[in-house]
Fold:
Amino acid sequence: MRWLRGGYIALVYLMLYVPIVVLVVFSFNASKNPYRWGGASLYWYERLWHSDALLAAAGNSLLLATTAATVSTAIGTLTAIALHRYRFRGKRLLNGMLFVVMVSPDIVLAISLLALFILVGVKLGYLSLLLAHVTFCLPFVVVTVYSRLTSFNPQIIEAARDLGATELRMVRTVLLPIIFPAVMAGWLLGFTLSLDDVVVSTFVTGPTFEILPLRIYSMVRLGVKPEVNALATVLVLLSLIALVGSQLVLGKGRGERR
Amino acid sequence: MKLRTPFRTAVLALIWGWMIVFVFLPNLLVIATSFLTRDDVHFIRLEGSLASYARLLDPVYAGVFTHSLYMALVTTGLCLLIGYPFAYIVSRLPQRHKPLLIFLVILPFWTNSLVRTYAMKLLLSANGLINQFLLGVGVIDAPLRMLYTEGAVIAGLVYVLLPFMILPLYAIFEQLRVDLLDASADLGAGRWRTFRYVVLPLTMPGVIAGCLLVLIPAVGMFYVADVLGGAKNLLVGNVIKSQFLDARDWPFGAAASIGLTVAMGLLLYAYYWSVRLARHRGEHGALA
Amino acid sequence: MKQLRSVLVIVLWVVANAALGVEEKTLYVYNWSEYLPEAVLEQFEQETGIKVVYSTFDSNEAMYAKLRLVDEKNSYDIAVPSTYYVSKMRRERLLAPIDKSKLTNFKHLDPKLINRPFDEGNQYSVPYLWGSTGIAINTTKVKPDTVTRWADLWDPKFKDRLLLTNDMREVFHLGLRILGYSGNETDPKHIEAAYEKLKTLMPNVRVFNSEAPRMPYLEGETDAGMIWNGEAYQAKQENAAIDYIYPAEGVALWMDNLVIPKNARHVAEAHVFIDFLLRPEIAKTISEEIGYASPNLAAVASLDEATRTNRTVYPSEEDLSNAEFQTDVGEAITVYEKYWELLKAGRE
Structure:
């Protein structure tokens, strides 16, 4: 029975990783034909490195993701705090709207924002992308932070308030440090979602701000090409590094807070 | 906390502002657009019409809708089938192995989904690896036509969305108290009964979360259908995209989008309702 | 110290965000995919110091829709529509006039291809490349003599084996020509008839592709179907079994042209780019690399023998016997669009 279980999860992991491994292996393929092995080579990586357009797109994507994650984390954290601590009219409506954003297929969100931008006259470029990305990252941040808020002792907050701290002071010095791991987790989630997004970006992007996923998309649509393999491998590696890094940072943070 | 501090006011203003401008208003615009007429130059004309919705009922488009929903449901089902036992098994493993195992699930989740879809193409194409392997081993004489089929799209969707199913399920299994299972066994329930009346109801929240996280993107991920699907395996997402970015028929695209949202809402509701029913029955059944 | 660090981070961040607005000599080019060799772009950038931001589209409709979306503060400086879209965009005042006095190489263009009805006097467009849409077959899978007409593609043996370009006018060209109508038909009844005919072809269609139509043939996913001549030419370089066939009912002929959208912000640089592409040596390189015919007479004269006599790139009179040049269909375009969407969405 034990072997069956082990075998099963091994199979699932295999499923998850075979395509990626294939990608990585073939990125070192010297042959131009992506399906036949022609010896090991770093040629495609060199070409990548010299591709200005790709590097620019990558830089843009990083900038966008960082900014979007930060802004959405800020707004999202505040939203979660407000939902948790305050009673106000229309709370259910707000919850409803957050739910709608989270539950809508990306594409519905994309066209609704496109319609808004065209109506208002927002230029399609960095700004439109940023606003769109912040919007779809928000609910995820809210959910992450909110669940952390509901799971600790509220008396600490009351104590701080009783001692005379203003709301702002209390939030800054007491509440935020406690929920910090969740806030960081929310940031990371927002960052990942933004970096990965193809659907929303397709609609609200403009010519002045090229982002990486869309660049990859046009490359992928041209067919199987070794450059794409190399680029994909680089992305996988970056994900790996980012993930390991985040585990270390978060793990450390959590330890200290205790 | 009832005190109206300036902090509270500022925060609420910010949140309400953002939500109204970027969620409420745009969705209202989409609803409005779906009732207007197409204009060649300015996308829409302020002329009311139900033509877009009528077009949705055209058998061709209704066909795309149902086919797309079908593919999304199959994807969700497959993800559930694969992910549920997986999450269960991992959650029962010794604690020291778990962080690594979960890390290995999260890594694909963090990798660009477009890249992963493309990787699928490497495997499935006529001179791709699976065919090369099968041909080389001699199992087949001619390459299998795997790419540009319905199966390819579903495979792509499952591959991209599987981590979204596994993670919530794993979280819920972690919370599942082992002593409940022991208690059930002590009371004489067999493995099947334990599963059906204890494990299943308790893991329902994870199942729902997982299914939502898979089903909803699945209908809109046009790039998967684009790369792997070929001519006849469009998702509703592809139709909507094409209406907005090629055909410039915004009212029809908006109507399709609303149709999609409604369909999702109905499915969600049906699912939620059936789960409550099952839980209700489960509770009563367990007591019987 | 902590404050200073956060201030520094914020300043850096703001600068990064602001730097997005600063642009030295840049040019935003919006072109068909696989339609300009990278080496040519690089040479342009090196010679002129103008940085090119290059985006691609796969159909006139997609290009037009995008230009409409970025209309108000339009940021593409060069676009490459086909002739019938030049007419449309000219009518809708979407194009900026081109100052031919700045184009020293304009004189090299074939007199037969300039000053055409779609843009008299070439006030708004400059020809770039012309070509045809015909049939491609993989001769290892399909016997060459069995496919000589568009109608042959309807053969049930091609079930699930065909590629069609993702191009509304071209696919309808097929349907219309088979029924004996013109590819530039404007009668809605005839267009509908073409739609019905094309519907019966759908079971044979495996994939629609205009990004790089040669790829599915090279990848072995499709054995026959439509293709652009240049793509067929490039395909043959990698796999000699891929042939280009001029169907008996006639290929669709088209020409793509360089235009400057109305709200382009780098008009001067755009003119430099156009003049660069009009240089005979550059036009020659482009034609030889990607296999489409150049309207540049000086370039054609200097082509190597192999390319000049290659019927795929430069067809003979006989090849073009029933060929039809694509022209603007005016209002009827909406009829086409309606049936095109239905055709693509259909699951039969």
